Amino acid sequence: MVIGSCKLGGMLLARKNLKRRAPRLRDPERTRQRLLQAAFREVYRCGFQSAGIDTILAATNVTKGALYYHFESKEALGYAIIEEIVAEMTRDRWLRPLQRSKDEDPIDALIGIVQAIPARPKNLKGGCPLVNLAQEMSQLDEQFRKRLERIFHAWQEGITMALRRGQYQGRVRRDLVLEETASFLIAMVEGYEVLAKNAQDAKVWKMGVRNIVGWLSSLRAAGNRKRG
Amino acid sequence: MVIGSCKLGGMLLARKNLKRRAPRLRDPERTRQRLLQAAFREVYRCGFQSAGIDTILAATNVTKGALYYHFESKEALGYAIIEEIVAEMTRDRWLRPLQRSKDEDPIDALIGIVQAIPARPKNLKGGCPLVNLAQEMSQLDEQFRKRLERIFHAWQEGITMALRRGQYQGRVRRDLVLEETASFLIAMVEGYEVLAKNAQDAKVWKMGVRNIVGWLSSLRAAGNRKRG
DNA sequence: TCCAAGATGCAGACTGGTTGGTATGTCACA
DNA sequence: TGTGACATACCAACCAGTCTGCATCTTGGA
C-alpha cells in the first residue's frame, strides 16, 4: 500500500512544500514508484506473462503514456520489479538481519528469520515472489534469469558468511560445507513455500518452519546445544 | 513423441486391419493422446496461461475442431494434463518404485529414486511439471489446486508408508513423525529443483542430491548405518 | 449381406475481445 | 520557451472459443 513512500520521497516532498504549495502535481519519482508497486502486486497475483498492463494502470490511475515514459517495455518493468522490489525484500528479510546479528549466534539469527516469515493467508497463497518469478521466467528470458540469479547468489552468500562467523565463534559445526549448507536451507524454505502455497494451509507452513528449525539446530557445534 | 501410442491402440489397429486396410484413419483415442502430450509439452515450456492453443495444434497437425471435440475448454485440457500425465509421472517415478521395493530398505529405495531423477539440461531448465503448475495455478484456479493437491497427497502418503514399513523392519528411526519427514523430503526435492532450474546448472542439482541423500541417511535406525 | 441413416470425429473459416505498444497532442514547470 | 511528464486515441496481433459443413464409422433392419 503505502510501503513505497520511502524516506527520500518524503524529503523531496518537504523541500517542495517550502518552495511552492503545490502538493504533488508532477512528481515523476512518485509516479514511477506507484507503477512499480502496482506492477509488483499484479505480477505477484497472476505471474509476469499474464499480468496486464491495463490492470496495473487501472490500479494506479496512471495512464499508458506515463507508464511507457518511465519504462521502455513490459520486460523493463519486470526487470525493475526484480531489482528494486524483490531484491530489496531479500535484503530486508535475510541479509540485513544477518548482518545486524554480528555477535549473536548466527543459527539463532537464522531460526529467528525463518520463524519471522509471515504466514498470513495472503502470503501463503501468493508464495515467495522470488520463487514465483524464477519458476515462471528463468527458462523463458535470460535477462530475467540473470537478475534473479544475482538475488539467489546474494542470499546464499549472506547465509554462508553468517555461518562462517559462527564457525569462527565455535558455534557452528566445523564439518559443514557452508555454501552447500546455505543452499540447502534456501531449498528447504522455498520447497516448503511451494507446498504451503498449494495446500493453502498455515499448518503446512508451520510444520515446515518446525522442521527447518530442527534441522538448523543440528548445525550447532558440540558445545553449543541449546535445547532438545 | 510416439510414447502416446499405447498397447491398446496397437490392438485396435490390428483388429481394424482385419476388417479394412484403412491403417489409422479415425482413431479418436490416438488423437486425444497426441493432443494431451503436445499440450503437456507446451504447458511445460510456457506455463498454462501462456500456452497457446494454436501452438499445440501446430505441433500435432490436429485442427481446432478436433481439440474442442475432445476437450471442453483450455481448462479442461489442463485438468486432463494433471490427472493423466503429471499424476502418472509421480506414480511412475516415486510410488511404484517404492511399492516394488517391498522388502528392501525404504531409505535405500528413496536414495535410489532421488538419484534417478534425470539431470538432463532439458529437465533442469524445465523444472518439475508438478511444481510448475502448482506454482502458477494453485492460487488462480481452485480446480487446478485440488487436482494438484491430490498428487501431492499421494506422493507424501507413498513416502510415509514406505518409511513406516522401514520402521517395522527396524531400519528407520522410531522418533520420526513420518508424515512430516515425508513432506520434508518433498520440500527439499522441490526446493532444489527450483534452485537448479534458475541456475540452469547440473552442479547445483547434483549438490542437492548429495545433500538430500545425506539427510536421508540420517533417518536410518541405529543398527542400520551403511556408510559415512 | 447390404444399404440407409444417424452418430461420431474432425476440418477450417470466422469472431469478439484482449493485449502490448505507439503516435500525437498537451499541460506543467524551470 | 523549450523540455519533461504525462494523456488519449488508436492499432495490429493474438487468442480462446464457435459454427457450419463434411467425411467416416456404426448400427439396425430387410
What does this structure look like?
The structure is a homodimer of 228-residue chains. Chain A is mostly helical and 228 residues long. Helices cover 72% and strands 0% of the residues of chain A. Chain A has helices spanning 7-19, 28-46, 53-60, 64-70, 74-100, 106-116, 121-126, 129-137, 142-168, 178-199, 202-217. In chain A, helix 5 (74-100) packs parallel to helix 9 and helix 6 (106-116) runs antiparallel to helix 11 (202-217). The longest helix of chain A has 27 residues, at 74-100. Chain A is elongated and about 65 Å long. The structure holds a DNA duplex (30 and 30 nucleotides).
Which helices and strands occur, and which strands form pairs?
Two copies of one chain form a homodimer.
Chain A: H1 7-19, H2 28-46, H3 53-60, H4 64-70, H5 74-100, H6 106-116, H7 121-126, H8 129-137, H9 142-168, H10 178-199, H11 202-217
Helix pairs in contact in A: 2-3, 2-5, 5-6, 5-9, 6-11, 8-9, 9-10, 10-11
Chain A binds a DNA duplex (30 and 30 nucleotides) through residues 22, 25-26, 28, 31, 52-54, 62-66, 68-70, 73-74.
Summarize the structure.
The structure is a homodimer of 228-residue chains. Chain A has 228 residues and is mainly α. Chain A has helices spanning 7-19, 28-46, 53-60, 64-70, 74-100, 106-116, 121-126, 129-137, 142-168, 178-199, 202-217.
The Rg value of chain A, from CA coordinates, equals 20 Å
The total of beta strands of chain A comes to 0
Tell me the helix content of chain A: over 70%
User: What is the overall silhouette of chain A?
Assistant: elongated
From the structure provided, what is the oligomeric state, counting identical versus distinct chains?
homodimer
- Stretches of chain A where pLDDT falls below 50 for ≥5 residues? 1-23
Largest sheet of chain A: none
**Gap from first CA to last CA of chain A:** 42 Å
Beta-strand share of residues of chain A: under 5%
